[in-house]
Amino acid sequence: MVNLEEHPIVKRILERSSGAERAGEVGPLDGDWLRRLCLDAGADDVGFVEMDRPELATDRPGILAAFPYTKSLISFVCRMNREPIRTPARSVANLEFHHTGDHINEVARAIIAVLEARGVRAMNPSMGFPMEMDRFPGKVWVVSHKLAAVAAGLGQMGIHRNVIHPKFGSFILLGTILMDAPVSAYNKPLDYYPCVECPTGAIGADGYFNFSACYTHNYREFMSGFTDWVEQIADSRNAEEYREKVADAESASMWQSLSFGANYKAASCLGVCPDIVEVVKPLQQKSETVYVVPGSDAESHVGRRFPQKTVKRVGNGLRPQSIAQFLGGLPNTFQREQAAGLNATYHFTFIGLEARQATVTIREKTLRIQEGHIGQPQLRIIADSRTWIRFIRKEVSILVALLTRRIRLKGSPQLLLAFGKCFPS
Predict the structure, then answer these.
(1) pLDDT digits (tens, 9 = 90+) for 40-53
(2) Over the chain, what HEC string results?
(3) pTM of the predicted model as reported, rounded to 2 decimal places
(4) What confidence tens digit (pLDDT) does each residue in 178-222 have?
(5) Contact indicator for 230, 314 with CB cutoff of 8 Å
(6) What is the dihedral of CA 381, 337, 329, 355, to 10 degrees?
(7) Of 21, 64, 123, 377, which alpha carbon lies 20 to 30 A from 294's?
(8) What structural domains and CATH numbers belong to the chain?
(9) pLDDT band at 225 (very low <50, low <70, confident <90, very high)
(10) Would you tell me the crossing angle of helices 90-117 and 31-40 to the nearest 10 degrees?
(11) In 3D, which of 125, 117, 13, 114 has the Cα closest to residue 73?
């Protein structure tokens, strides 16, 4: 077993530490000492956040479930080299992502080794993509590195949903350490961000973010995209039919992701931030396959704005397993252009294993979800909760559900069709 105290970085830091610093004295950790420790361990910038910060409210239960002793969070960034991220050659960019990600985990482990030598308990959730897949497709992360970084003043969340650092821009990856000690001084958030349009249409000119468009294309070989690929295999009667659905290059790319490291299908939002024309044009003009959900805003956007790119229709695998996930996931799959002209209020009444009432309002291409029944609906939907989830997951037809009265409608069925059009998956 590797002794972290013999790690060259850790050993050097421990040798420089005073006896008091290593004795685990009572009281808050000195912020200047802790910052120096993190930078010496290899971080490029660092900030500290107290556990009761309001910005962490949504993550707090998960953090405490994983590490109940948490009093403070250390958020740090490691910068990536710019040109490898900006190149249209995805293999080069992916290499930079993976190497920087490995470095972040090593930095965190070195910091924790020094803290443990001082008598401070700490742990670091995996950087980047989460690993709590038993919760998929729910909240599969221990801590949101982005929320922690913004709260720690390491940048601001851009429209592209990546943190923009004031010095390094979007050329960063993030790490977080949970610690059972307070710090003498904490950091505050910044208050600005720039951003540009995304080739997939994920970022609107008015700042609107289309989660589904980004997720479906960029993460084609992660989680849900992988699930969709597996189902394409299962649905193919033979190799010939499979090859009609999946090109040889796509199969090889999936193999590469499984054997080496996940293949990010785009990083334009990082590479062009801030907006640099000579970087934007090669990425926009590159001939490549863009993965879209059929009937989504992304499909029409790519065809209209980037005719040199090949549009491929795929599923994004965002299938809820509960009513809570269904309602919580609606903002992520909502397609506002598909909702054009629809002004309706829907009352949902779910019965059975997961009883719940909710109001979903779609008006002027905006979505609002409320608990309970609010206002006068144009369509009432009363559904057995498990049947509704099976319907959403395309495991049971709406006709069968209506005939067996496990789903009942009070209002025009056309409004249910219009609702589904707003949330293609």
Answers:
(1) 999 999 999 999 99
(2) CCCHHHCHHHHHHHHHCCHHHHCCCCCCECHHHHHHHHHHCCCCEEEEEECCCHHHCCCHHHHHHHCCCCCEEEEEEEECCHHHHHCCCHHHHHHHHHHHHHHHHHHHHHHHHHHHHCCCCEECCCCCCCCCHHHCCCCCCCCCHHHHHHHCCCCEECCCCCEEECCCECCEEEEEEEECCCECCCCCCCCCCCCCCCCCCCECCCCCECHHHHHHHHCCCCHHHHHHHHHHHHHCCCHHHHHHHCCHHHHHHHHHHHHCCCCCCCCHHHHCCCCCHHHHHHHHHCCCEEEECCCCHHHHHHHHHCCCCEEEECCCCCCCCCHHHHHHHHHHHCCCCCCCCCCEEEEEEEECCCCEEEEEEEECCEEEEEECCCCCCCEEEEEEHHHHHHHHCCCCCHHHHHHCCCEEEEECHHHHHHHHHHCCC
(3) 0.58
(4) 999 999 999 998 754 445 556 676 766 566 777 777 777 777 777
(5) no
(6) -10
(7) 377
(8) 4-179 (3.40.109), 211-313 (no CATH), 323-422 (3.30.1050.10)
(9) confident
(10) 130
(11) 125
Q: Tokens 């001084």 belong to which residue?
A: 185
Tokens (6 digits) for 131: 């690993």
